[in-house]
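note to self — DONT lose this again. spent like an hour looking for the file last time. sequence + predicted structure for the chain T wanted, 214 res
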Amino acid sequence: MPIVAIGYDCSWDPPDQGCMRGQGATFIVRYGSRDPSKNLTQSELDSALRNMLSVAIVWQEGKTQMLRGYPGGQTDAEDADAFVRGLGLAGIPIYFSCDFDPASGDWVNVDAYMDGAKSIVGKGRTGGYGGKPFISRQFDAGRMTWGWQTYAWSGGSWDTRAQLRQVQNEVTLCGGKIDWDEAWYSDFGQWPRPSAPPVATTADEDDEQTIHIS
């Protein structure tokens, strides 16, 4: 399964988009949260589209937001949905961030959070970001349609159902600070939305191949 596209994610220090296009990027993953200084803005979105960069959305309200369980997932999904609608992106899939390595006692809350998010935006729009244990667990349980797996907490193993992979963190480039990402499916929940639906896969296979960009 080949890489489809190269992109990046960023938070408080977004780089120059034209420069990133020159580095080979064709998509961005940008944040929604309750901190406006971190979030994708309308002007940034408009600029990305002019620069032919597609945009995906991740919601992160702290690294351990999922420990807030089912009501936390519902609240975050409601706010995330309002956020994307405010940008004219109604109906776009949303990745919810599990930005830590859950301990065995954390899973009951993490799973409940994802159930709560799904109850608001529906499985077809629910995505998750995290390491392989999180990604595989949520796909296996049918809690999400979209997966963005980070190399962190993954032990070099990839769940082939994940549409996105984060392969390198904390890169200073083009006047900002980014993480490099790879799209392994043509549809990874981005805007503008592709015409074709995502390819459904059922097997959890380990794929050791990745490309690290420096």
